[in-house]
Amino acid sequence: AALTVRFLTRRFIGEYGDMEFIYSHNLTVDGREILFHIWDVPSSQEQAEDGSSEEKRIQWADSFVLVYSICDRASFNILPLKIQFIKAAKEGQSQEKVPIVIVGNKRDLHHQRVVSSEEGRLLALSSDCGFYEVSAAE
């Protein structure tokens, strides 16, 4: 949620509840007006739901940004399963590659890091995904 709000408003808010939101946002990219619809779902909520809710979100989306905390091993460890689930649902219907980007957040908290940049890069490479490390706070 912090990363989504930072993208939409350029402000950082450190604490969020476990709520799901859909945001709409216009942005000019390479001279073209792009309308983003962002379905922001906290991982704690996803873990509590059945697969049909997650399947609905996957079918709704055209691309995916999977965010983990570099300070939280569990948030990283669930990514391979999520990537596999997304690819099975989206690429099973067509031969077109689904855009997925893996984002390690909280780069500013490097002193609390438990997931290395190399681990993130290797997961992205082995899964054919993009990869970035960022700090929503900075």
From TrEMBL:
Reactions catalysed according to its record: GTP + H2O = GDP + phosphate + H(+)
InterPro entries recorded: P-loop_NTPase, Ras-related_GTPase, Small_GTPase
Lineage: Eukaryota, Metazoa, Chordata, Craniata, Vertebrata
Gene name linked to the record: Rasl11b_1
Pfam family, one: Ras
GO molecular function terms listed in the Swiss-Prot or TrEMBL record: G protein activity; GTP binding
UniProt keyword annotations, A-Z: GTP-binding, Hydrolase, Nucleotide-binding
EC number(s) from the headed UniProt entry: 3.6.5.2
Assigned protein family: Belongs to the small GTPase superfamily. Ras family.
Protein name per Swiss-Prot or TrEMBL: small monomeric GTPase
SUPFAM superfamilies: P-loop containing nucleoside triphosphate hydrolases
